[in-house]
Amino acid sequence: MPEPGRAALRAGEAPRYNSVMPDLRIEPATLEDLPLLAELLADLFSHEPDFRPDYDKQMRGLRLILEQPNRGRIFVLRDSLRIIGMINLLFTISTAEGGFVVVLEDLVIHADHRGQGHGARLLRHAIDFAQKKNFLRITLLTHRGDGSLVEFYRKHGFKQSEMVTMRLLLEPGGSGVS
User: Fold this and answer.
1) In what order do the strands lie in the sheet with 25-28?
2) How many CB atoms lie within 10 A of CB 176?
3) Whether 83 contacts 37, CB under 8 Å
4) Domain locations in the chain?
5) pLDDT digits over 64-123, tens only?
6) CATH code given to domain 25-155
């Protein structure tokens, strides 16, 4: 059951009274967080030319991750009243690295809380998590045209790859490529 007052607030929404911002903490997301996480993804995908917000798809994908922790983790930055941001890590195996690696799928901070170091805090948490769990690499895709995002990841040790991203969208139940 949600904490009192949490369900009434949207992701990142400020409380309706003046107070000092309570301590922020990073913790694993829960199924109760799904609607707020889907709202954060809707905001993220509304700025991405390759993706479109689709609440049902985002809810389904998030639920699959939360219900199968061997596939990935979602961490949230929150205070006692709201979710400030999230980072989504997916696990796979790299033949190049010879072991388990992480794909950083999503990192998003609520618009009202950007520019305050919250994204860096979540990213550091993800890097620490991956190191403690002996993952060998973290890979991510970021917007080629957004130099500030590229620079953000560079500051945290990421390097641009020579690899080219390509994708093939498949229809559910379809026969694939003809």
Assistant:
1) 25-28, 72-78, 83-94, 99-109, 138-140
2) 7
3) yes
4) 25-155
5) 999 999 999 999 999 888 999 999 999 999 999 999 999 999 999 999 999 999 999 999
6) 3.40.630.30
